[in-house]
Amino acid sequence: MAQNEERLDVIIFGASGFTGKYTIYEGIKLLEGLRWGVAGRSREKLRQTVAEIEKKADKDLSEVPIITADLKDDDSLKQMAERCKVLINCCGPYRFYGEPVVKACIEAGTHHVDVSGEPQYMERMQLEYHQRAQERGVYVVSACGFDSIPADLGTVFLERQFDGVVNSVETYLQVTSKIPHDGGAVLHYGTWESAIYGLAHANELRPLRTQLYKTRLPNFQPRLKDRMVVHKASFLNGWWAVPFPGSDRSVVMRSQRHFYDTEKKRPIQMKAYVAFESIVQVLAVAFVAIVFAIMCRFKFGRQMLLKFPKLFTFGYASHEGPTEKSMENAQFAIYFRGEGWDKEEKLLEPTDQFKSPPTKKIVTKVSGTNPGYGATCVALVLSALTILRESDKMPGTGGVYPPGAAYAKTSLIEQLSKNGFTFEVIKPPK
Fold first, then answer.
1. Are 80 and 15 in contact (CB under 8 A)?
2. What backbone phi and psi angles, to 5 degrees, belong to 292?
3. 80 and 133 co-located in one domain
4. pTM of the predicted model over 0.90
5. Fewer CB near the terminus (10 Å): N or C of the chain?
6. Same domain, 225 and 350
7. Is residue 218 within 8 Å of residue 351, measured between CB atoms?
8. What is the domain count for the chain?
C-alpha cells in the first residue's frame, strides 16, 4: 500500500465464493458510508461477482476496489491485509485456508472476522496467536455466522435478562420452512467439507484444550446432565430433540471460560440440542449421522463423502448450494432454557457453591430467517463493524476470541435486532 493511500474500512476476502457473494450483497446496505473492497485470487471472477451482485441489488458498485490475493502467496495476503482496517474472511474450510490469513492480518495490524464453525481451527488459533494478536492490538474473532453468534450472544442475552446467577443453559435449535422442501440442497459443499474434516479430526480437541487451559475449572454444582439421546422437548409442542453436533457448545464454553478467567464470573454450563417435528425425521437424521461418522474415520470414506455429497445427504448438500427461494423461506429459532438463583442468593466468591438447588428459570429465544447464508452474512458484517466502532468496549487491546467474549459489552445484540434477528424472553424468570 502506498504511504499516502488511506486504508479501506473493510475488505471481503473470498468474495467470489458462495458465502462471499452473500456477504457482498448484505454488505451493500450495512457498509453504506464506509470504504470497502473485495478480494480473491482471480480479478476476472471478482469482476463477474461484483457485476452479478450489482445487478441483483440494483446498485452501482463500479467504485468498489478489487484486490487480488492468493492463499499460496503470503506477500499478497499481507499486502491485502495492509489495505484495510478489518478483513472479513470467507475462505473455508478454515483448517486448510484460515491460518495464513490470520497470520497476515496480525502482522499487518488488521482485525479479522470469519464464519468458521470448526472448533479445532478456532481453538488452535487462540492457542497459537492470542498473545501476538494482543501485542499487535488486533482482534481475531471466528464463528461470526450462524455458527455461533445466535448461541453465544443468545447466552449473553439470557444472562442479561436473568437478574441473578445462571447455573446452566440448554439450547434447542429449530429450523423450519414456509414452503415444503423442494428436494434441493440445504447446504453448500463448503459447509459439508468443513463438517467432514471437523469430525475426522475431532480427536485433536482434547490435547489442544489441555494446552489452551492449563488449569481446570472448579467442579461447579449442580452439574448439568446430558438428556437422553432422543427426548421430547415438551415446551416445543412435543418436538423430538437430539444432541446438536455443531460448534455452538465449544464456542459458548470458550466465552464462559474467558469470563471466568478475566472477571472471575461463575461460568454457565451449556448443552446444545437440535429439534425435529417427528420421530421419522430423527431416525432418518440418525441413520445419515451414523454412516457419516463411520465414513469420516477412514480416508477412503472421506473421499467418497466429498465426491458424492448429494448421494450421502439425500440431496441436502451440493456444490451448487441452496436456491434463493429455499434460503429465503428457511427460518430458525434457538430456544434457551436457563436455570439458576436469584440475585439475593449471590455468593461472595465465584468458586463458592450454592447450598440449595436452582430456584429460578427463564426461557429466551433467538430467531431469524435464512440461517445458513443470509443471517450468517448479516452477523459477519455486523461483527466487523462492531470492531470498527466499539473496540473500546471489547476485551483488552486485542486477541483471539469467540464472539460472546468479544462482543458481550458492545451493542452487537441491538444491531442484530435491527437487521433481521429477534432476541426475546418467552417465559420470564420465576
1. no
2. -60, -50
3. yes
4. yes
5. C
6. yes
7. yes
8. 2
Q: In this structure, what CATH number is given to the domain that contains residue 21?
A: 3.40.50.720
List the chain pLDDT tens, one digit each, 430 residues: 544 468 999 999 999 999 999 999 999 999 999 999 999 999 999 999 999 999 999 999 999 999 999 999 999 999 999 999 999 999 999 999 999 999 999 999 999 999 999 999 999 999 999 999 999 999 999 999 998 999 999 999 999 999 999 999 999 999 988 766 555 667 778 888 888 988 888 888 999 999 999 999 888 999 999 999 999 988 888 899 999 998 999 999 999 999 999 999 999 999 999 999 999 999 988 888 899 999 999 999 999 999 999 988 878 888 888 888 888 888 999 999 999 999 877 777 777 888 889 999 999 999 999 888 889 999 999 999 999 999 999 999 999 999 999 999 999 999 999 999 999 999 887 6
Residue whose C-alpha cell reads 428436494 in the numeric block:
183
Residues across the chain:
430
Residue 244 and residue 113 share a domain: no
Residues 215 and 125 in one domain: no
Residue by residue, DSSP assigns 11-50 as: EEETTTSHHHHHHHHHHHHHTTTS-EEEEES-HHHHHHHH
| CATH number of the domain encompassing residue 252 | 3.30.360
DSSP string, 301-349: HHHHHHH-HHHHTTTSEESS---HHHHHHEEEEEEEEEEEEEGGG--SS
CA-angle at 23, arms to 19 and 29, nearest 5° = 160
Q: Are residues 243 and 115 in the same domain?
A: no
396 grid coordinates = 483488552
Q: Within this chain, do residues 48 and 73 fall inside the same structural domain, yes or no?
A: yes
